[in-house]
Amino acid sequence: MRLMVLDHMLKQQSAISITGLENEFERSDRITLYRTLKTFEKKGLIHSINDGTVTKYAMCEDHCTENHHADSHLHFYCTSCKETFCLPRIKTPEIKLPGSFKMQELSLIARGLCEKCSA
Ligand SMILES: [Zn+2]
Ligand SMILES: [Zn+2]
Ligand SMILES: [Zn+2]
Questions:
Q1: Ligand sitting nearest the alpha carbon of 40
Q2: pTM across the whole model
Q3: Distance between CA atoms of 33 and 53, rounded to whole angstroms?
Q4: Choosing a second label site near 38 at 20 to 30 A (CA), which of 1, 17, 30, 110?
Q5: 74 Cα–ligand 3 center, Å
Q6: At what angle do helices 2-11 and 30-42 cross, to 10 degrees?
Q7: Is 60 exposed, middle or buried (0-12, 13-18, 19+ CB in 10 A)?
């Protein structure tokens, strides 16, 4: 099961939600899928993306390790096909926070039309 999910995610061009995976693997149940995704996330294989709709998952960048994610790239949400894409070549900017604000994560979501939809 885990290998099937990982294999499927490797082939994805865009991020996938748990519902998307459920539709793909008809004989799976949501709880197993959820656990599988959480395990992968913890191991630094996939990262979760919140694009304002549902949580989606995508493969990590190479330098992600167990318990440490380094997916500091832009995510792009297509308002037409509703797909979310990782844009690993566009890094999120460093942001200086005032005083003792401590950032735990920064997510940057761009919205618009993807390559396919804008063509
Ligand atoms: Zn990661
Ligand atoms: Zn699109
Ligand atoms: Zn990403």
A1: 1
A2: 0.89
A3: 19
A4: 110
A5: 7
A6: 70
A7: buried
CA dihedral (105, 111, 116, 118) positive or negative? negative
Cβ atoms within 10 Å, residue 69? 18
What Rg, from alpha-carbon coordinates, does the chain have?
15
The pLDDT tens digits of the residues spanning 63-92 come to 899 988 989 899 999 999 999 999 999 999
Q: Which ligand is nearest to the CA of 16?
A: 3
Tell me the ligand closest to 9's alpha carbon.
3
Residues with CB under 5 A from ligand 3 (ion): 58, 71, 86
Of the listed ligands, the closest to the CA of 60 is: 1
Domain 2-118: CATH class, spelled out: mainly alpha
> Helices marked H in the chain — which ranges?
2-11, 18-24, 30-42, 115-118
pLDDT under 50 in the chain at which residues?
A: none
